[in-house]
């Protein structure tokens, strides 16, 4: 398998040859009859061999020969037959006898409507991949297009190589049909089980952003992306059209969007299929594309038109890349795309029971729903299947005939076998510099502060510098890299940008590997596509707005969970989130920016995949980040502040603490080992840790005889039982840390009920009292935020007094002093606009340790 990394080798140029004169992709409107309309004037470009400029004549791809046309049509018919067979048949796969009800599946599930268009695209991609020796993948966007892609994978042999029990013969065809949408079988959409897939095809909106993620830093890769017209109505897909402003023709591969307009969703027409073509053309050109149009419902002309459009598009891509790589840049190009209009449910039943089906929404799922009960439907199904002439396509043993496979690529160039769609095959370990180069000195706990994410940014700069040549690490985020204190990255790379630049701009470059765009959907999709094709990355976001990609991360978690159970899927780099600018330090943005619930969402998902980390200081953040960046097949969520935070642990201590996930900080408590503690102060998160340590300090001063244990939690999944999560603690270990019968006052970063959910099966849960965010937010001082949510040090001391048996009567004065401090705080902030000096100037060192 060729895995080109030399940016000088443009896509579509054959074996490294330069594009010939006439290869620029001027727009050709391909009519249904297959003839080319008058093209727009081609753009001027620079010859790779001279410094003079010349106009390249528009290409005029040769028509398919009769032999090529017959062979491509045979492949397409074979794929359509296999796609329909998956929806309907459980026996008689070659129709070697008349079709009977017992040959039909008991439950008819699947989606026929999009399948013929997908098989058409796949067939023609096969032709150009083989002819041009391309390395390519395809992202299949239309929902539930599984039958089409599975059919083509079976035809090219990649399916049988992946699943030997589904052999490329009659027995294997029967198994291919039986398993589709069947208990214990495979899903109806393109999924991890599908060879060559890197995109979960059930939820719509993310195909194009995944395609661009796959193309970044993949200069020899062509990424085709089929976008269904239903998917094109989603917000994430609408934003994805702007991804071409970030694609560097020098260092990145190419993305070829193929907008498939078949006119309907489940039961309604689609917007882009119904607007005037001039309006559609203006929209797509406004997005920066040069559209090529293929329209029709007669196979012969459509085959000719599709072949011509693909040749024009790939010639244009080759010219763009060759010019950019020869000149080192240039103006942002207009990339080609294809608009394909074919009927929904093409080649299926035109009418059923006197009602139109082909070309209507009725073709969306199962066009003939009653074939087991209605003899007329059964006869119509048999007529439909025989219309593909399976005897011409498969031999007596059910193997595809040579003419069906004439244009199928070989080896790893088959779309079902590309290692780019099984990215773990290409993944290399990330070169992370030693943490000792970045760790902060900690002479004693709580004496100094650092901005954790600023220090992390220095580590990420080191990673970015170490991958400068291999280019397999990116950081994405919605316009927040510097805001989250990660600007050290700009010492190693800039922000990717292909559009206009002004003298006032900073840190923009065509080859940058920091990616900022104000669409969390794009950031998520780019990174997913990048990771699934064998690279590494990190998504940095404001904590509150990670929720925007709740559904996307859910799909990625499902992908990873399924892929882990497929031995042929190799592990990929983990999807790493850094959530900063968090709920407790949104002093200037206020309530709209205060939401710590992304952690709750993620911890609801597959425990074998999800990991959450709440490092309390800078060195623990470095340790957690090092672990996450090295990990495979996880979704890691790291929540860390960007504001000055006390340094509690040395690097060595931080590593040990992170390895445990939960630890007793003996230096912070007052228990002497002679008896069980009177109370446990637990904490998770940087601000809750500070408030807990301050509460412990107050208890040390006011109630010195009280035995206090301080427990810090970095990994909240440790609170779960061992049978609920791989990181869960055995009951005996949990009881040893938290005690089975003493009050536990838990200060938590997010919504308090998450901690109750994680621990409800534990001994002593009735003694657990959790403080956390209670949806009380505004624009206010840092300490006022914790007071408003009853997470402050004074409230924690009051909780201890209230919950330690017998302490309420003895410590009534202490409780009253804590309540007075809260009152004093309220008056001070309203008068001065700042926190109380005794809070703002507090350090642990004052405890005299």
UniProtKB/TrEMBL annotation:
It holds the Pfam family XFP_N. Its cofactor is thiamine diphosphate. Residues 642-844 form the Xylulose 5-phosphate/Fructose 6-phosphate phosphoketolase C-terminal domain. It comes from the Bacteria. Its EC number is 4.1.2.-. Belongs to the XFP family. HAMAP family: Phosphoketolase (MF_01403). This is Probable phosphoketolase.
């Amino acid at each position: 398998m060729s895995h080109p990394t030399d940016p000088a080798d443009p896509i579509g140029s054959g074996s490294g040859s330069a594009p010939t004169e006439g290869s620029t992709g001027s727009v050709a409107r391909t009519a249904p009859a297959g003839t080319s309309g008058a093209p727009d004037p081609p753009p001027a470009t620079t010859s790779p061999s001279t410094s003079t400029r010349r106009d390249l004549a528009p290409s005029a791809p040769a028509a398919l020969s009769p032999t090529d046309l017959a062979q491509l049509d045979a492949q397409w018919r074979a794929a359509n037959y296999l796609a329909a067979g998956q929806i309907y048949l459980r026996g008689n796969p070659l129709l070697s006898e008349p079709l009977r009800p017992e040959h039909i599946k008991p439950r008819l599930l699947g989606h026929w409507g999009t399948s013929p268009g997908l098989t058409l695209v796949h067939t023609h991609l096969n032709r150009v991949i083989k002819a041009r020796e391309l390395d390519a993948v395809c992202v299949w966007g239309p929902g539930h297009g599984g039958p089409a892609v599975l059919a083509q994978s079976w035809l090219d042999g990649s399916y049988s190589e992946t699943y030997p029990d589904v052999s490329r013969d009659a027995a294997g065809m029967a198994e291919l049909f039986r398993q589709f949408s069947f208990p214990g079988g495979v899903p109806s959409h393109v999924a991890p089980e599908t060879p060559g897939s890197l995109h979960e095809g059930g939820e719509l909106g993310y195909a194009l952003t995944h395609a661009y993620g796959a193309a970044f830093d993949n200069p020899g890769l062509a990424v085709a992306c089929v976008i269904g017209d239903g998917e094109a109505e989603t917000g994430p897909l609408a934003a994805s059209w702007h991804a071409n402003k970030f694609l560097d023709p020098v260092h990145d591969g190419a993305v070829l969007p193929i907008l498939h307009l078949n006119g309907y969703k489940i039961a309604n027409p689609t917007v882009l299929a119904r607007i005037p073509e001039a309006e559609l053309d203006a929209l797509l050109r406004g997005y920066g594309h040069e559209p090529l149009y293929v329209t029709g419902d007669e196979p012969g002309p459509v085959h000719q038109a599709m072949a011509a459009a693909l040749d024009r598009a790939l010639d244009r891509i080759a010219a763009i890349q060759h010019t950019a790589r020869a000149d080192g840049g240039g103006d942002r190009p207009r990339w080609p795309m294809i608009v394909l209009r074919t009927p929904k449910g093409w080649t299926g039943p035109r009418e059923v029971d006197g009602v139109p089906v082909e070309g209507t929404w009725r073709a969306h799922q199962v066009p003939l729903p009653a074939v087991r009960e209605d003899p007329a439907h059964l006869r119509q199904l048999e007529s439909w299947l025989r219309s593909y002439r399976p005897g011409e396509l498969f031999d007596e043993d059910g193997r595809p005939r040579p003419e069906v496979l004439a244009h199928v690529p070989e080896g790893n160039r088959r779309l079902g076998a590309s290692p780019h769609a099984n990215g773990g095959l290409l993944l290399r370990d990330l070169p992370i510099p030693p943490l000792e180069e970045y760790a902060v000195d900690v002479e004693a706990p709580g004496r100094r502060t650092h901005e954790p994410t600023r220090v992390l940014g220095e580590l990420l700069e080191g990673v970015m510098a170490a991958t400068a040549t291999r280019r397999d690490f990116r950081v994405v985020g919605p316009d927040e890299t510097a805001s989250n204190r990660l600007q050290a990255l700009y010492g190693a790379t800039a922000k990717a940008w292909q559009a206009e630049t002004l003298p006032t701009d900073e840190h923009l470059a065509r080859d940058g590997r920091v990616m900022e765009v104000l669409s969390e959907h794009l950031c998520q999709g780019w990174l997913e596509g990048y990771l699934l094709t064998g690279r590494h990355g990190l998504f940095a976001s404001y904590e509150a707005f990670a929720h925007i990609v709740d559904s996307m991360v859910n799909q990625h978690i499902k992908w990873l969970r399924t892929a882990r159970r497929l031995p042929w899927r190799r592990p990929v780099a983990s999807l790493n989130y850094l959530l900063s600018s968090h709920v407790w330090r949104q002093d200037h943005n206020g309530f709209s920016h205060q939401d710590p619930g992304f952690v709750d969402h993620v911890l609801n998902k597959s425990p074998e995949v999800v990991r959450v980390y709440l490092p309390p200081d800078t060195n623990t953040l470095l340790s957690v980040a090092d672990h996450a960046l090295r990990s495979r097949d996880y979704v890691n969520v790291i929540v860390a502040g960007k504001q000055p935070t006390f340094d509690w642990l040395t690097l060595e201590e931080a590593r040990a603490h992170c390895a445990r996930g939960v630890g007793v900080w003996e230096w912070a408590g007052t228990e002497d080992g002679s008896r069980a503690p009177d109370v446990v102060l637990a904490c998770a998160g940087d601000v809750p840790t500070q408030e807990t340590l301050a509460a412990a300090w107050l208890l040390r001063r006011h109630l010195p005889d009280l035995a206090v244990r301080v427990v810090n939690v970095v990994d909240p999944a440790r609170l779960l039982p061992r049978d609920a999560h791989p990181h869960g603690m055995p009951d005996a270990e949990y009881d040893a840390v938290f005690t089975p019968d003493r009050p536990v006052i838990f200060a938590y970063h997010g919504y308090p009920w998450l901690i109750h959910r994680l621990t409800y099966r534990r001994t002593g849960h009735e003694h657990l009292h959790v403080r956390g965010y209670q949806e009380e937010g505004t624009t206010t001082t840092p300490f006022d935020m914790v007071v408003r949510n009853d997470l402050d040090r004074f409230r924690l001391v009051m909780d201890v007094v209230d919950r330690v048996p017998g302490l309420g009567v003895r410590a009534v004065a202490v409780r009253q002093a804590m309540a007075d401090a809260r009152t004093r705080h309220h008056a001070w902030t309203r008068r001065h606009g700042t926190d109380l000096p005794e809070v703002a100037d507090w350090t642990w060192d004052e405890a005299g340790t």
